[in-house]
Design a protein that fits this description.
This protein is mainly α and 164 residues long. It has 6 helices and no strands.
Length: 164
């Protein structure tokens, strides 16, 4: 199911990028058409220097559209309807996963809290700092007391206005 959702999301991103690129290309079409109408080399080069950014942007958009829409002319209406259908397809699996996501989020929160309060369950590593080693040697009750003291100190500093 996850692979299916990822495929649909990548297709949605591609279609959105195609629509955006199509708009950009349509906006820059007049500049490119004017460039193509110039037949004298000197005037064409001068025009290309003056409008280099626009022409480069148009060429980039044209390459992107040709890459993703081989043998098919660009049609924004069809792409928009395709995007709507893809979003509808994406809503269906997301709705079925909503319950599982809530449960997994709760499990992640519990895992984080257990890992914070009971680090001895975590395997030892070389990345342990001296503070975490000291924390590991404390009992659970001592850790709770230390955490509540830190929390109280944080609240005190937040409540006190800073003096200049």
């Amino acid at each position: 199911m996850r692979g299916e959702i990822q495929k649909i999301r990548s297709l949605v991103k591609t279609v959105e990028a195609l629509l955006e690129t199509g708009e950009k290309k349509a906006k820059l079409d007049p500049v490119h058409d004017q460039y193509l109408k110039i037949h004298w080399k000197g005037r064409k080069e001068k025009f290309a220097k003056e409008h280099k950014a626009e022409l480069d942007e148009w060429n980039q958009a044209d390459r992107f559209i040709r890459k993703h829409m081989k043998d098919v002319p660009f049609n924004a209406g069809k792409l928009q309807s395709n995007l709507v259908s893809l979003n509808a397809k994406l809503d269906e699996p997301n709705a079925s996963l909503k319950l599982y996501q809530e449960e997994t989020q709760m499990l992640k929160d519990i895992r984080y809290l257990v890992k914070d309060l009971l680090p001895e369950l975590e395997p030892e590593g070389e990345k342990m700092t001296p503070e975490s080693k000291d924390w590991r040697q404390m009992t659970v009750r001592e850790r709770l007391v230390a955490a509540s003291k830190e929390f109280a100190a944080e609240n005190e500093t937040r409540q006190q206005p800073q003096r200049k």
